[in-house]
């Protein structure tokens, strides 16, 4: 069964760091780009970062310079390293690959 599973979320103070993981199973993971999105309470889902199958990366302006996306095709995993987190980064972070979505992982940035 094809699925994506995110992990690594949690509570962190402003200025802190978190590393999120998106692990794939039951599907090939090196054909399409993989993208991280987030959805804050009461807001629409928004793009965070994407990495193509060849490793090119793109970031939203709101996270550029503070977030790094990377992938390990052998492990079928995509990572999202987040630094200098801000309270507005509080959201459920989900990864997407082709038609597949994970269940999301909660990130809360608060003192």
Description:
- By secondary structure, this protein is mainly β.
- Helices cover 0% and strands 51% of the residues.
- It has strands at 3-7, 10-12, 18-25, 34-39, 46-51, 57-59, 67-72, 77-82, 91-97, 100-101, 105-109.
- Strands 2, 4, 5, 6, 9, 10 and 11 form a seven-stranded mixed β-sheet that branches. A four-stranded antiparallel β-sheet has the order 1-3-8-7, with no helix packed on it.
- The model has no long low-confidence stretch (mean pLDDT 96).
SSE order and pairing:
Blueprint: E1 3-7, E2 10-12, E3 18-25, E4 34-39, E5 46-51, E6 57-59, E7 67-72, E8 77-82, E9 91-97, E10 100-101, E11 105-109
Parallel strand pairs: 2-11
Antiparallel strand pairs: 1-3, 3-8, 4-5, 4-9, 5-6, 7-8, 9-10, 9-11
Question: What is the structure about, briefly put?
Answer:
With 111 residues, the protein is an all-beta fold.
Distinctive features:
111 residues, mainly beta, seven-stranded mixed sheet, four-stranded antiparallel sheet, globular
Question: What average pLDDT do the residues reach?
Answer: 96
Helix segment tally: 0
| Dominant shape | globular
Percentage beta strand: over 45%
Low-confidence stretches: none
Biggest β-sheet description: 7 strands, mixed
Structural class: mainly beta
Run of helices and strands:
EEEEEEEEEEE
**Could you estimate the helical fraction of the residues in percent?**
under 10%
